[in-house]
Amino acid sequence: MKKVFTIIFLFFTSVTFAQNVKMGKFSEEEIAIKQVSYEPDAGAVVLWEEGESQFFSDLLETTYLFRVKILTDAGKEHADVRVRYYLGDNKTENISSVKAQITNFNGDDAETIKLGKENIFDVDLGDGLREMRITFPNVQVGSILEYTYKKADKNLTFLDGWTFQNSIPTLGSQYQIKMIPNLDYKMITQGYNLINNAEISNEYGMYKWTLRNLFSLKEEPFMKNYRDYIERIEFQLSQYQTNTDNMGLQWKDMLNTWELLGDELISTYREKGFYRNNPIEKELMDTDISGSTQMEIAEKAYYYVRDNFTAEGEDFIYADQQINQLLKTRIGSPQELSLLLMGILKSQGISCDPILIGSKGNGRTNIVPFPFLTQFDEILLRTELDGKIQYLDLSDKDAPFGYVDLDKHVLAGLYLVQGKSAIIPLEFKHNSNKVFYSEVNLEGSDLVMSNTLRHYYYEGLDWNKSVSSLEKQKEPLEKLFSQNSETTVIKDVEVENSLIEKNYVSTNFKIVLESAGDQDMIVFNPIKYSSFSKNPFTQEYRIFPVDFEYAFTETSNVNIKIPEGYELDDYPEETVMTIEGNSIVFSYSAKPMNGVLVIGAKMMVKNPLISAAQYADLKYLMESVASKLNEPVVLKKKANP
C-alpha cells in the first residue's frame, strides 16, 4: 500500500502554507489553483483547515479555521456551511466568535466581502440540537471562502478530536491539542495516512498532526462502509486527578473493566424485564416451541418472534420499553426482539446471551481496546445448541434462522455474561455461492438455453428480495434478467425458495435466440448473468479497500450440444487468472467431448477484503475476467453436411 500512495503523491498539487494561516492572506499557489491534480473532477477543494483545542476550567475550547476554493459551478454548493452541535439545557456545546468572508479575484485585483448577521445565523433543530449556518454571497468559480469559529464543549469524557477528510479533496488538514497534567486521555487513531504519513509533533504537552493531499470521502464500488476507514483522531478520558482531604492529589480511574461495563448493561436489560421468566412463560402458554433437539426449539422460537412481532426503529444496544409492553403491543426495536428471543431460549434451559458489536459503517474497523460503550451500536445473540455455537439476529424480517445481518459480520464483540463479560472473536460460517447450469440445444430454428441459477445463503436472500419486489408490483419475473439483444427472449421463469429448508433459491428459465438456425453462423455468449461479466471497477484509483463482504464462489457449467449439420468454428480458450496472494482466482475451461462443448468457469473470492494497494491488479484482473466471460461460441454450418 505504501508504494502505491508514494507513486500517487508524486503527482499531487504542491501548495505551501505558512504555519499560521491568516484569513485574507493567500499564497500564489492558492490563487492560481484551478484543478486538483489527483482528483481533477472535484468541484471544490479544502485549501487548508485547522483546529486547535485547549482546556479552560471545566470545558474544552476548539478554534476552527477553514479555507475552501470553488473550482467549478457545481462546486458552488459548498458555499452553504452547516455545523451541528448539542446545546441542550446546560449549554453542553456552544458556538461563538463566528467570522466568515469571501474573496473574489479579477486579474490581479482581489475583492473581499466580510459576512454579516444576514449570512451567519443559528437554527434550533429541537431536542437540544442546534445548527450554525453560513451562506456565502456572490460565489463565483475561483472564489475563496473562509470561516472561523470557536466551540466550547463541557463533555470532557469523550473528545471529538478531528476528522482529516471531507466530502471534497483536502490539500492540508491540521489538528493540535494542548493537554493538561491533571487529565489523562487515551488517544484513538484511525486511517492509513494518519498512522503512516502524518507530520507529528509533541512539545510541552502540545500534540499536533498534519495530513496533506487527502482524497474526498465518497462511496466506492464494493465499499459501502467507507466511514470505517476515515482518517481521524479522538480521545477518551482514562483517569483524572482529584484533591482529597486526607491524601492530597489522587488519580481516579474513569475506565471500567469489560466485566463491570457488561454488568452495567445487563442490569438495564434486567430492569426492563428481559431476564424474567414469568412474562415469557405466560406468553408461551398457548404456543408450542417444543422439539427433540435444542436446534429445533431455537428455530421454533426464532420464527415465533420473527413472524408474530414487528420490528420498528433503529437497531441499537439499549431496550426502550418494558418486556410487558413489548408483549402487549407486539412492536419493538430489533434489539428488543432479540432480547425477547434470548429470554424465550433461557426459559427453555438453553444458554443464550447478547453480544455487543460495532457494526460495519459505524466508524471503526476494529474494537478499541478500552472498555467504553460508545463504540458499540448493535447487538446479536450467541447461543449454544446441541454443543455448537450459533449466532442469532432479528434485524431482517425476511432472513431465515441463523442468518446474521452482513453489517454485523465483524471480527469481535463484547460478550455479555454476568461477571464475565469480555471481548470475544466472532466467526460467521456460510457458503454464499452462486451456481449457473445450462443445457444448450437447437430446437427447430431457435437456439434454446435451458438454465438453472441457484443462489445460496446471502446471495439467495438478496435474490429472493428481488423476486418478492417484482411479485408485489405484479411485474413479470423475466425482469430479473436483462436481455442482451432484440433477438434474445427470456421465458418460462420459475423460482423455488428453499432458503429455510436448504439455504438456497433456485431459478429455472430459458434464453431463446430466435431464428438462430436460419443463419450460416450462430454466435452467442454461453455464460449468462455472471456478476462479473461487466467490470465494476472502472475508476483510475482507489481510496478505500475493496470489500466483497464475504468469501464466495461463482460457478458456471454449460453443455452445448453441437447441432446436426453444424461444427465448432471458435470457442474461448482455457485460462487461469489471479492476483498476488491468490485472494481471487478465476478459471475458465472449454472442451469438446462427444459432440458436446463442455464449458466451465469459476470465480473464487477467498479473501473478501482487498487492500487499495492491490486495486490496480484487481482492476486488470476484473477487466480480463469480463472479457473472457463475454467471449462467444461460434457454430458454423458445415459446407457439405
Give, in spatial order, the strands making up the sheet with the most strands. Answer: 5-4-8-2-1-10-13-12
CATH architecture descriptor of the largest domain: Sandwich
- What is the CATH fold-level name of the largest domain? Jelly Rolls
The CATH first-level class of the largest domain comes to: Mainly Beta
Q: How large, in whole angstroms, is the Cα Rg?
A: 30 Å
Low-confidence runs: 1-18
Count of domains: 3
Main sheet summary: 8 strands, mixed
Spatial separation of the terminal alpha carbons: 59 Å
Shape: globular
What does it look like?
The longest helix is centred in the C-terminal third of the chain and has 16 residues, at 457-472. With 641 residues, the protein is α+β, with helices and mostly antiparallel strands. The protein has three domains: 28-218, Immunoglobulin-like, CATH 2.60.40.3140; 258-425, C8orf32 fold (Roll); 432-637, Jelly Rolls, CATH 2.60.120. It is built from eleven helices and 35 strands. The radius of gyration is 30 Å and the shape is globular. The strands form eight sheets. Strands 5-4-8-2-1-10-13-12 form an eight-stranded mixed β-sheet, with no helix packed on it. Strands 25-26-24-23-29-33-32-31 form an eight-stranded mixed β-sheet. Keywords: Signal. InterPro entries: DUF3857 (IPR024618). Residues 61-214 form the DUF3857 domain. It holds the Pfam family DUF3857. Residues 1-18 form the signal peptide.
